[in-house]
Amino acid sequence: MNNLEIRDNRLYFDGCDTTELAEKFGTPVYVMSYSEIMRRINELKEQFTEKYPSSRIAYASKAFCTTGMYEILKKAGACIDVVSGGELYAAQQVDFPAECVEFNGNNKLPEEIDQAVSYGVGRIILDGLQEIELIEAACKKYQKKMNIMVRITPGVAASTHDYIVTGKKDSKFGIPLVEEIFLPVIKQVVDSEYLEFVGLHMHIGSQLFENDAYLQALDVLMDWVARIKDEFNVTVKEVNFGGGYGVTYTDEERKPYSFFMDPMMERLQKRSEEIGIPCPVAVIEPGRSVVAEAGITLYKVGQIKEIPGVRKYVSVNGGMGDNIRVALYQAEYKGIVANKAEEPLEETVSLCGKYCESGDILIPEMKIPSSVEQGDIIAVLSTGAYGYTMASNYNNNPIPGVVLVKEGKAAWMVKPQTYDQIIQNHVIPDFI
């Protein structure tokens, strides 16, 4: 990870002493680096939007969604991909430009579609036939015409965890590329007075480190671009590649965006020439790759239990409630004792959480100094994506806050939840 350094046995992140952050803001706490977020955004610009004019970045909000994050993206000139009314609502609170919002999701609710059309989002990504009627009804209500991207299921199996594969044939996402299903959807969109067919969308999975599956999926997509041209005399103006670019959690080697983008754009241009159409505008949806390595989580060590001849458990004051990915995906992380960062790593322990589940293990085998004791601060690295956004109140534990750091400065981005906030919507029925 960038922006991590060790000074005088202490771990620093974007110029801030993480032990002091823990003391000032409390633990557990998510810490996000503004500098690292901007480094990734600038890399995307250099290797994609500036290199390929008319291309577009639509940050995948599900990775990390806060009003502060949307403000960063707005000022950086990026677009966003949202998948719920809640994400859209957060964007509305910072006056995110409506034309730069793309609304995705496999089961958009009627009220969410109404919200999106009312706001005038730039694109609605169609995920099923039944959505057409809902979008048309909202368009009629507000007298608007919506740009529509149609999400396909390319039938390509990406090499990643089953739970984050989204482009294979058996998927809840997208419209199957079966002629009698797909073509009527395109026809209905093209014929609608309220819908403007713009292009096709795909997303094959997440945490990918090779580009072959992307290229296979793009070839499938472009075959249907040609078919749409032949069947309806309609030119696809935009192609959305989705996201899924892998990041470093433990020993993975992160690839630069150009590793994916350059061959994809070369293939897109070549296939467009073969079909006889102008090269469509290319759109990507990076999420995890923008924020994962921009975040760490700080915990305080509590109980330490050793089972002779078996293992030692080091418990912290967080766990699966603030990072469900280990239990859900068997995700792997690295950690460091933030206040003893230079001490030799002499023991291997299981770093576990405080939740009432045997599976609440953050790092099954973590090397630590033998001097670790209650009150020490543990930093788990690369937690910027899908930590805060997937957090829960399991066991009625509050969701931690988020601190944004930048070159030695630190401030709340999201304040921590309180017990009162956990139960503020609880009601005792009068018939009890």
Task: Explain what you see.
The structure is a single chain. The chain folds into two domains: 4-32 and 293-415, Lyase, Ornithine Decarboxylase, Chain A, domain 1; 34-291, Alpha-Beta Barrel (TIM Barrel), CATH 3.20.20. The longest helix is centred in the middle third of the chain and has 21 residues, at 212-232. The N and C termini lie far apart (54 Å). The chain has twelve helices and 21 strands. The chain is of the alpha/beta class. The strands form three sheets. Strands 4, 14, 15, 16, 17, 18, 19, 20 and 21 form a nine-stranded mixed beta sheet that branches. Strands 5-6-7-8-9-11-12-13 form an eight-stranded parallel β-barrel, surrounded by five helices. The protein is globular. The protein has helices spanning 18-25, 34-49, 67-76, 85-93, 110-119, 129-142, 179-191, 212-232, 257-275, 288-291, 325-329, 419-423, and strands at 4-7, 10-13, 16-17, 29-33, 56-60, 79-82, 101-103, 123-126, 146-153, 175-176, 195-201, 238-240, 281-284, 295-307, 311-316, 335-337, 347-352, 361-368, 377-381, 402-406, 409-414.
